[in-house]
Each structure stands twice: as C-alpha cells, then as structure tokens.
Amino acid sequence: MSTMAIAIVTDAAASLPAELVDRYGITVVPMWLNVRGVPVRSGERPLEELVTEEDISTSGPSPGEFTSAIEANSPAEGVVVLTIASTMSSTHQAALLAAKNSEQLVRVVDTGTAAGAEGLVVLAAAQQAARGGDLDSVEAAANEAIARVRLVATVPSLDHLVRSGRVPNIAGWAGRRLNINPLFEFRDGEAKRLRPSMSREAALERIVHIWRRSRVEGADLHVAALHALAPDVAADLMAEVTSEIEPATAFVGEFGSVMVVHTGPGLAGLAWWWEGPNG
Questions:
Q1: 33 and which of 8, 21, 40, 203 could share a cystine (Cβ 3.0–4.6 Å)?
Q2: pLDDT digits over 236-253, tens only?
Q3: Residue 182 contacts by C-beta under 8 Å, 6 or more apart in sequence?
Q4: Count of alpha carbons within 13 Å of 231, Cβ hemisphere only?
Q5: How far apart are CA 239 and CA 228, in angstroms?
Q6: Residue 144 in 3-state DSSP?
Q7: Is 264 left (phi over 0), alpha (psi -120 to 50) or beta?
Q8: What is the distance between the alpha carbons of residues 34 and 40, in angstroms, rounded to a whole number?
Q9: pTM of the entire structure?
C-alpha cells in the first residue's frame, strides 16, 4: 500500500517491472484472459503457453476490482487511476464507474497508449506523487507525459494480429510472402502502421533511428525497451539508447499476456518521452 499522499493505481497492461511497482507503491489491477472458456488472471500462465493457444480472448478488469484497489489506498488523500487506452479496452470505463461510486477523491486518466508507454506515464505520475505533489499536479504530470510519449515497435509476423482481427488476412499473407517486418507506432489510442523493413535487423535499426531523430537537446529522457518473449533484443535496444544518453528513467518491460495474445511472440520496440522546456 502506498505511503504517498496521492496513491497511484494502474492496470497490468502497463508492463511495469515489479521493482518499480514496489518502489512507488503502485497498485496494479490485473487484466483477464479467457482460455478455452476458462477465465485466467494475467500473469498466471507462462507467455510461452499462451501464444500457442487458438481459443483465447482478453478482457479488462471489472469495476469491482478497481473499487478494491482504490479502497486499499484509503489512507491516501487522493487516488490517480491510469488506464490503458480506452480505444483498446473496457478498462477505462470500469475505472470511471469505480471512481464514480467511491468516497475517495479519484481522478481517472486515459493514457491513450499501452505497455511500456503506459508504464512511462504511470511513472511520471508516481514520481510527482513521490515528490509530494497534490492531486492536480500528479494528474498534470501524467497528462504532460501522455502528450509527449511515443511507442514504436516491430513484430516478426502478422499472424497473431490477423487472428485477433487487428489487420486483414491479406496483409498477413503478403507479409509472409515478402518476408517483411512490420513496424508500427502506437499513439493517441491507435496503432499506426509505418513503412515496413525488409529484415528484422533493419526494423530494429529504424526504431532506434526514429528515437534518435526525436531527441530534444537539454531535455530529460524517459525510456522503456519493451518486448514479447525477446528479452535479449530489448536489452540491445536499451543499450543502443544508453550508449548515447543517460536517461532520467529507464526500464525493460515485457508485454503483458493480454497484449501478447494480440501481437504474438518476438515483438520488440521502444517507448519514450522527452521532459523539458522544449520537449
């Protein structure tokens, strides 16, 4: 339970390492999977097993789960709840319902993103709370990060995205035939396809290039290397970044099970934002 005046609650899609969750006293509400008709809490089954399942779907937390998370922080002066993009999940709506029925002072923030980018927004809020910020300033810190955060990633195959309905089947067929590596940027609640690369290595190089071109001189970097069953690739991406600049915040995060069901294994990318007068 958080000892800060303002408590932070988020969902498991933020993919935050346990160390950071513990450091800032963040309460994480689980996401849910339905595997062959059986509900499974996110994190209970190994990702290696889940990516092989054919009959699997995902769902967000219930309002009751958010209510429990808010009540667990009842000694706090207020609670900021940060959720995965409302365009992706019912999670945000569930949090709003919980906040409406709570006696606590609660602000619910739609991060407009997911995974490592959502995690960076959550950390921006948590760090402001740790500095003693009030409800308004913690919410403002989250909104500043939301306005600036980017997430760019690549997947080795479109098969899982085709299966989940995220892209048409013809795109998956063409990707396999041409041996291309799709790239996408997730921003403002939407996954936007970027020009694909002709190899995995080229795709990863482009991610670093896109990050490098965004650099703001004099600004502090907050960065996450993210992956789905590709920790070595994420570590290499982080090493590329940290060889050029010392980040103010940095972590390697694995995509949660709810996200990996849709992307499949092998996803890798960077999420980041620049904090500063001109960031």
A1: 40
A2: 999 999 999 999 999 999
A3: 154, 155, 158, 175, 193, 196, 203
A4: 4
A5: 18
A6: helix
A7: left
A8: 6
A9: 0.90
